[in-house]
Amino acid sequence: MEFTIDLLAEYEWPQSEPAKNRDTFMIQEQIAEYLGIKSFKRKYPDLMRRPVEMEERNFLFENGLASEKMCDLGLTAVYGNEILDIMCNDYPEKYEEYKRYQREKAFRNARLRLETAVIDRSQMQKDKAISSASD
Description:
- The chain has 135 residues and is an alpha+beta fold.
- 60% of the residues lie in helices and 12% in strands.
- It is elongated, with a radius of gyration of 20 Å.
- The model has no long low-confidence stretch (mean pLDDT 90).
């Protein structure tokens, strides 16, 4: 099975911290698959990395950011900005693909929020009209 761009997880951790204090991480095993690197640790030995603890692993699995199989094998978190630097410098085509995917994803999410807001507003207007008619 080919590892595609939509399977890459980029997430903020720890979740208990306010959003502005969280760091952005990616999963080393996913990055290695996406970039086609057999030994990511050997190729980039100076990269800051840490093992993913159980609470974080559960968060990744429950949010669909990592498969159960990948979680069972063990995960390593790496800083997202360092990975993006590597991709930009060593894998420019993969970097462009990733940035394009992120832009499209942000656009889809914004459109979905807008559509939801319009539906919510429409429902509020209907509820107000029903309430007014019943009064």
